[in-house]
Amino acid sequence: MYTINYWPAADDALSELEKDPAKAEELRAVDRTLLQLAEDPFNPRLGTTMFMTEPLGGINATPTAFNDWYIIWQRSPEPGEIDAVQIVQLHLT
User: pLDDT of 36-88, one tens digit each?
Assistant: First the structure.
């Protein structure tokens, strides 16, 4: 089991989803994906895409399988931990 550390932007996004009753399905999808990430963030069945950025290095985007919501995360310097950088709705084309 991995520990998920939340950056402020990810924590804020999760709080916003929790406050909005109209986003209940999105929140369930995000929660389910976070649980799956905690079990094994490297499971290929999650559909995670890895990409490189200059400021942050390797970043991963894992879809929640609902309405284009993604968990953006990276490996933590600590073993057995990942950092949730952002939780965001992306419209990728």
Answer: 999 999 999 999 999 998 887 889 999 998 888 999 999 999 999 999 999 99
Element (H, E) at 59: strand 57-63
Architecture in CATH of 3-89: 2-Layer Sandwich (3.30)
Tokens 């932007």 found at? 9
Separation CA 81–CA 76 (nearest Å): 5
For 60, other C-beta atoms within 10 Å of its C-beta total 20
Residue 16 one-letter amino acid: E
Strand, coil or helix: 19: helix
What count of Cα atoms within 13 Å lies in the side-chain half-sphere of residue 51?
A: 7
DSSP label at residue 77: S
Nearest CA among 18, 3, 11 for reference residue 72: 11
For residues 64 and 49, is the Cβ–Cβ distance under 8 A? no
